[in-house]
Amino acid sequence: MTRLRTACLAVGLATAALGLAVSPAQAAPGDVTNVCASTLTPSGFVDVQWWNSSGCGSGFEPNMKQIKQLTGLPVGTVVNACASTYQPAGWVQVSSYYSSSCRYSAVPSFNNNAWQLRRVS
Q: Which pLDDT belongs to residue 58?
């Protein structure tokens, strides 16, 4: 019975890990996905929010983030994004500002940590 339980747990964890890895790739333009901070933000996505979650471990640093798919959005679209990732190709920074939603450090400051981005090509 212990082997069966261990095997089921391993399959469940593998399925969950695969689900996190596959979700962003299947996102439609403008879709958001929540991932642990240890997950690299994929190309074409930007970070839009950070927070703490027991589902991604423990500690004082924000360990979970919400990412947004920008690939496929029309030219002229404006989005707000955390400065924790670079803007994708075809997007320019219009302004920068401070956002409490973009605190991605355990020792935050009140310096600008977010951008307003506009799609130009």
A: 78
Q: Would you say residue 82 has pLDDT above 50?
A: yes
Instruction: Give the separation between CA 80 and CA 99, rounded to whole angstroms.
Output: 10
What are the φ and ψ backbone dihedral angles of 44, each rounded to 5 degrees?
Answer: 90, -5
| Cα distance between residue 95 and residue 10, in whole Å | 46
CB 78 within 8 A of CB 94: yes
Which residues fall within 8 angstroms of residue 62, CB to CB, at 6 or more apart? Answer: 37, 50, 51, 52, 103, 104, 105, 106
What residue ranges do the domains of the chain occupy? 2-119
- pTM for the whole structure: 0.76
Whether the Cβ atoms of residue 112 and residue 92 lie closer than 8 Å to each other: no
Round to whole Å and give the CA distance between 120 and 106: 34
Residue 6 is predicted with a pLDDT of 43
